[in-house]
Design a protein that fits this description.
The chain is built from three helices and no strands. It has helices at about 1-15, 25-50, 55-94. Helix 2 (about 25-50) packs antiparallel against helix 3. It is flat.
Length: about 90
Amino acid sequence: MKREERNLKLQILKTHLPFYLTIKFNKLVVLLSIITIIFYTVAAILLQKYTLTELSPTLTTCVYAFFGTELLGLAGIKICDTKFTNQDNNDIGS
């Protein structure tokens, strides 16, 4: 009963909100990747400035390589999906 009551309250709250917050998974991954890269860069700069120690260059290379590859992979998936969707639409229209 409590669970149903919470679900009903949540549905009522959703009807009163003037906006709907829905984000696609791909956009969430891109956003988190960019935020992570920015935070890592800022942390590395601050650490080097205040402690006079440098983070491992291998770690830095791996972080940028991982998130860069992730972003390139998502871009490739998006390009292929768009390409095949456009081809399907053109075949149907002919």
